[in-house]
Amino acid sequence: MSSLAAPLPAPVPRRAWLTDLPVLMVAVVWGASYLAAKGITTADTVIAVLVLRFALVLPVLVVAGWRRLRALKAAQWRGAGLLGLVLSGIFLLETYGVVHTSATNAGLIISLTMIFTPLAEAAVTRTRPPGSFVAAAGLSVAGVVLLTQSGGFTAPSAGDLLMLLAALARTVHVLAMARTKAVRQADSLSLTTVQLGGAVAVFAVLAALPGTGPAPWTVAAGFGAREWAALAFLSVFCTLGAFFVQMWAVRRTSPSRVSLLLGTEPLWAAAAGIAIGGEHLGAAGVLGAVLVLTGTSWGRRAADR
């Protein structure tokens, strides 16, 4: 959700774990976010929950980066605002998707972004990806097929298809950030704040339309302690905290190392879904999960090379 600033020189190796541990914790909370979102969201309350989730953190980001926001040029506001529209689509697809599939499937399918993005970039730049990357992509796709058919070969669920679309939307978002000249010079905090603000505006408009579910304040009034705790987890840890940890870490280590650690997100999504959510994967599902994790890891290394 944010562009990362150029890193400073790497720290002494024996202290690397001091930087790696917070980044790894971001991957853990992101993995657990699918189960948390699934626990407090229904098909009727998706938009209301999204309004609540991001409205809680947006004021903090605005206050923290007020001076930088005021320094943004008009073109940067427009560029970041358009990216915010794409971001709103990603969150809508992801949240509706996780409502209609398992948290395990959601976390593993969304990891295909790491495969889709280099393939899309290769298509845009008309460069041929290495054979090892193509093989890794094929392995990941095969894994998703097995994962979504672990209960028997049937049509994928609506949630599985929505998560696949979310992975494609994430790919569009990454490429748009990289290729939109107006936002290249914008700092990470301002860029993320404007994007989230644009997404919240979309959610607020949708929430005001008839037939889109209960109002956010109605949903909030019906929340108990468990639901508020899950919402706070999504807002504070999975959004606000994760963003600042990324900004802090990338200045103390390499972007590749941060990416490698964040790439373990689907593993934690599966762990949370199975250990906490009581979800179950059959033999085909387990094999599919292994193939997805292997393919995305292999593909990421091939893309880096």
In words, what does this structure look like?
The structure is a single chain. The protein is an all-alpha fold and about 300 residues long. The protein has one domain (about 15-305). It is built from 15 helices and no strands. The protein has helices spanning about 15-40, 45-65, 65-70, 75-100, 105-110, 115-125, 130-150, 160-180, 180-185, 190-210, 215-220, 225-250, 255-260, 265-275, 285-305. Helix 1 packs antiparallel against helix 12 (about 225-250).
Please sum up the structure shown:
The chain has 15 helices and no strands. With 305 residues, the protein is mainly α.
Q: State the order of secondary-structure elements, H for helix, E for strand.
A: HHHHHHHHHHHHHHH
Mean pLDDT: 83
The termini sit apart by: 24 Å
As a whole number of angstroms, the C-alpha radius of gyration is 19 Å
Judged by helices, strands and strand pairing, the structural class is mainly alpha
**Major sheet summary line:** none
Number of helices: 15
For this entry, give a set of tags.
305 residues, mainly alpha, globular, disordered N terminus, Diverse_Substrate_Transporter, membrane, EamA_dom, Permease, EmrE-like
Strand and helix map with partners:
Blueprint: H1 16-40, H2 46-64, H3 66-71, H4 74-99, H5 103-110, H6 113-125, H7 131-148, H8 158-179, H9 181-184, H10 188-208, H11 216-221, H12 225-250, H13 255-262, H14 265-275, H15 283-304
Helix pairs in contact: 1-5, 1-12, 1-13, 1-14, 2-10, 2-12, 4-8, 4-10, 5-8, 5-14, 6-8, 7-15
